[in-house]
Amino acid sequence: MxxxxxxxxxxxxxxxxxxxxxxxxxPPASSAPGDWLNFLGRIAGIAGFGMLLVAAAVSFRLPGVxxxxxxxxxxxxxxHLLGCGAFxxxxxxxxxxxxxxxxxxxxxxxxxxxxPDGGGAVWLGWIALVSMMVxxxxxxxxFGPPKYQRWKSIHRLSAVxxxxxxxxxxxxxxxxxxxxxQWLWWTLxxxxxxxxxxxxxxxxxxxxxxxxxxxxxxxxxNVVELSLEALARPMAYRAGQFVYLCHQQxxxxxxxxxxxxxxxxxxxxxxxxxxVKDLGDASRALQSVVxxxxxxxxxxxxxxxxxxxxxxxxxxxxxxxxPFLGRVRWLAGRGEAVDIGLIxxxxxxxxxxxxxxxxxxNATLPGFxxxxxxxxKHGPLSSDFLRYHCRDIASREVYICGPGPLLQLARDLxxxxxxxxxxxxxxxxxxx
Amino acid sequence: MKKFCYSAFIAFWSCIATLLAVNVLAxxxxxxxPATPGYxxxxxxxxxxxxxCWLVIEGKVYDISTYVARHPTPPSVLLPWCGKEATEGMxxxxxxxxxxxxxxxxxxxxxxxxxxxxxx
Lengths: 432, 120
Prior knowledge:
The complex is a heterodimer.
Chain A: H1 3-25, H2 33-57, H3 72-101, H4 106-113, H5 120-139, H6 148-155, H7 158-172, H8 180-206, E1 208-220, E2 223-230, E3 242-247, E4 259-262, E5 272-277, H9 281-286, E6 294-301, E7 311-317, H10 322-334, E8 339-346, H11 355-364, E9 368-374, H12 375-378, H13 383-389, E10 397-401, H14 404-416, E11 424-427
Chain B: H1 2-30, E1 38-39, H2 41-45, E2 48-49, E3 52-57, E4 60-63, H3 75-78, E5 84-85, H4 87-92, H5 101-108, E6 111-115
Parallel strand pairs in B: 1-6, 3-5
Antiparallel strand pairs in B: 2-3, 3-4, 4-6
């Protein structure tokens, strides 16, 4: 297990620690089904809430910290899994506790869910549960794909879930002996709060960089590459990383909103460049941004490429070419020979982005081999195509970036052709 | 995963609705609730033994004689509360922790009346 896998495992360990302690400390009172259901109901609640707090703690973007986990997209993948797990367990939690009371009587079971007198802590639990359903509904696509900005606003309701859930848990927890219970929960809650304070306040101040749009280069009818010049200290970054960009142009949609874009420039360049494809309201608006517009960048994030270059195969699809573009521009700037094959998957020549520049680099950068795969001509990417253009694929580090379906296909093909999971690196654009 | 979560969400509310519906139907069969007798604290105090234990909790009188042996703690923990106003014991367990909603719901099963002073 490498360090990044260990870091992810550590998150799960912290999230599940209270449940493990509770399981040992307060096992089922007897072997009766009711006692077992009660035990499982308690453990489900404890595990679910632990996962929720850790998911909250890792949801804040801390530049640099994400690289411990293999990049922000990988970290958020764990955030999604923790969130889904918490959602399922916290749904099961009250049901199991109610079912556990059914052998006593039906009215007792109902009383567990809806206490007739008092039971304030239980009602706080309900507020936490219902607010969780509301803030998770867009993330889980209950009502179709959400709009990014609306999703972001609704997701803030998670703070209500965390606060009410914490009060509910502290008031009712009986599975872990006092004061250890309070220590455990306050530690997790403090972790989440510290990440919130750091992510929302300190990181904004420390990792936010003022820039100005200097050049808008139209790459295609729906793609622009913005060159940005620093207004203060420039951001240090590595090729293939991404930033959150927030523009300040009046009368342009999304002013003041943060959206992620991959850096297409080499870290050695004087200006910083981002390639933006019209994929939604905010990226559509940026197609019309004018030079001179002030922008704020937060980041950098991501850990797609290692520091040094080895024998590599890159597979890019559409706008997924961007991190590779940044990387190859950087390698070309160093002037050293490389051993890299790039398979660039596009539908047809008309949709090729930056392909002239890539062909030029193919001719001038020793060891860089560009292959363009046209969907309309070659059909879906296949094993035969991969093996024909990269015979030693099994012994290379493979990097894939592109739309979901291509990413999945390329990953399956690489694995089928002997590439080990350890050598397979992917960057997913879908952050929701 | 998203579809599974959505299914779980629907299943959750289905279970809650079923439980509530069955409870309403079952309660309807029981008919009218008998009048609740009132007891004074003196009357309650006469039942202060392990096998004859009455408690007053938040204005209601409970006869938990048959439950004392089943309570998770030893009978010696409950015994000092028998025959007395025991709201504090129920709400704090002696160390600031309320009883679970299961415990509160179970308690309702043992109600035999209300405290005379607070009886209507």
